[in-house]
Amino acid sequence: MIGKISGRLEYRAGDHVLIDVRGVGYIVYVSDRTMATLPANGEALALFTDLLVREDNLQLFGFTTLLEKEWHRLLMGVQGIGAKASMAILGTLGAEGVSRAIALGDINAVKAAKGVGPKTAQRVVLELKDKAPAVMAMGGTMAAAQGDVVAEVEVIETPVVTGAAPTSAAAQSEALSALGNLGYAPADASMAVAQAAGENPDADTPDLIRAALKLLAPMG
């Protein structure tokens, strides 16, 4: 399995690029969003990859982040979603947008992707909704694994509900981290998580993320 490719960007086409790795050229398919972030031809490039094996063909799909690659893997597991549809969804929404849309059950956002009809979008949301918070919570770990520089943010103490289970504080902290990875301001995320925890003191991390996202949705 080819999980990552590092080399020189040789050329780009409509939906794929050629990466030269020590004289061997690899064709890697990427989403429109990823294509727009790539460097100029001739410059160094590294992409996380997923290999699709078919009887008559082998295709590599490239991603700039592990979070994007994880969503591609999950989307491909949904009936009716092939590689083309998965890349269309990721190209339209981005990894963070997919997390937000699926966690909130936003079928309209998913079906905005080219080639994805309402029934398929509904299936995506229904099958992946319970998995979205866990993937979002993984965002910080994935960023660390990629060696990304994580910007320092203001630390805001999150109110812990009196009488809550000992794991509540940890769940709130993990939920805050996930919301931060999605770009929400620390103050907004803190208030939403605190309110969600207050309404359901026994909530685990995925439940807190889901509830907080619903509270933050009007702000988005």
UniProtKB/TrEMBL annotation:
A GO MF label: four-way junction helicase activity
Renumbered residue ranges of the record's region Domain I: 1-64
GO cellular component: cytoplasm; Holliday junction helicase complex; Holliday junction resolvase complex
Superkingdom to which the source organism belongs: Bacteria
All copies of domain DNA helicase Holliday junction RuvA type, residue ranges: 1-62
Localization annotation: Cytoplasm
Keywords: Cytoplasm, DNA damage, DNA recombination, DNA repair, DNA-binding
Main location: cytoplasm
Keyword DNA damage (UniProt): yes
GO biological process assignments: DNA recombination; DNA repair
Subunit structure: Homotetramer. Forms an RuvA(8)-RuvB(12)-Holliday junction (HJ) complex. HJ DNA is sandwiched between 2 RuvA tetramers; dsDNA enters through RuvA and exits via RuvB. An RuvB hexamer assembles on each DNA strand where it exits the tetramer. Each RuvB hexamer is contacted by two RuvA subunits (via domain III) on 2 adjacent RuvB subunits; this complex drives branch migration. In the full resolvosome a probable DNA-RuvA(4)-RuvB(12)-RuvC(2) complex forms which resolves the HJ.
Job of this protein: The RuvA-RuvB-RuvC complex processes Holliday junction (HJ) DNA during genetic recombination and DNA repair, while the RuvA-RuvB complex plays an important role in the rescue of blocked DNA replication forks via replication fork reversal (RFR). RuvA specifically binds to HJ cruciform DNA, conferring on it an open structure. The RuvB hexamer acts as an ATP-dependent pump, pulling dsDNA into and through the RuvAB complex. HJ branch migration allows RuvC to scan DNA until it finds its consensus sequence, where it cleaves and resolves the cruciform DNA.
Domain notes: Has three domains with a flexible linker between the domains II and III and assumes an 'L' shape. Domain III is highly mobile and contacts RuvB.
Protein name stated in the entry: Holliday junction branch migration complex subunit RuvA
